[in-house]
Specification:
With 241 residues, the chain is of the alpha/beta class. It has eleven helices and seven strands. It starts with a helix and ends in a 5-residue tail after the last helix.
Length: 241
């Protein structure tokens, strides 16, 4: 850890790191993102936590909430392209703040990012050709048109959809869903299965994605056990020292 502390001394002279925590429903993204945030803050590392979508603070985040409540139709009635625009505009609204922090050498912990939208909307295409066309379009939208910061690493928390479904069965009502316990994606079992497949394919496809198995021999690991795995990955990839 001495090396890590020494590393923080030079953060101001280096570009920061954008760490994305992602995964399917019930994978513990928020828990792990907050644990990592506290870990870095405990070592006086300049760190900012972002939660996407920004349901309460962003105009476009509020539009995403409407979509997830089903106000524009079910998941088969709204084009993945149109849905992606609202998500992308929400992230773009945070672009300047994120860039400022990264230029100062700070760390950003993102609980979901463009990666999550790509998985959920990409899973709606069953034709490989159509899916690839969408992926090309959405990457251009996010990183070339809106020019949001490119993530340095994506930590993909893998919980099989069967277990994830059970973990979210008794979920509390969420404010942005206005009394509902599940959004339109979570209510559709077939969609959850396809999203599971999509995440796994993305983790294999991109080198900066790292899959962490959160279930071992049928048992869900504790938050601290998963956190230790996550820290080990970040050290191995030299995101932190």
């Amino acid at each position: 850890m001495k090396d890590f502390l020494a590393h923080t001394e030079t953060l101001r002279q280096k570009k920061g790191k954008l760490i994305v925590i992602d995964g399917g429903d019930g994978s513990g993204k928020t828990t792990q993102a907050k644990l990592l945030f506290r870990y870095l803050k405990s070592y006086k590392v300049p760190t900012k936590y972002f939660d996407f979508p920004q349901y309460y603070s962003s105009f476009h985040g509020k539009t995403v909430a409407k979509f997830l409540r089903g106000e524009f139709g079910n998941i088969n009635q709204v084009s993945p392209y149109l849905a992606s625009l609202a998500y992308a505009l929400d992230r773009a609204s945070a672009k300047n703040e994120m860039e400022f922090l990264l230029k100062k050498g700070g760390y950003i912990i993102a609980n979901r990012y463009a990666t999550s939208n790509i998985a959920h909307q990409g899973a709606k295409f069953f034709s490989i050709k159509e899916r690839e066309h969408y992926l090309k379009w959405v990457y251009e939208l996010e990183y070339k048109i809106h020019r949001i910061p490119k993530e340095d690493i994506v930590i993909y928390l893998y919980v099989p959809w069967q277990i994830g479904s059970k973990l979210t069965e008794n979920r509390k009502k969420r404010k942005y869903l206005q009394g509902q316990t599940k959004d339109i994606h979570e209510k559709d079992l077939n969609h959850r299965i396809e999203v599971d497949k999509m995440y796994l394919s993305l983790a294999k496809r991109y080198r900066h994605w790292v899959k962490i198995d959160c279930v071992v021999r049928g048992k869900l690991l504790s938050p601290q056990e998963i956190h230790k795995k996550l820290i080990a990955v970040l050290q191995e990839r030299k995101i932190i020292s």
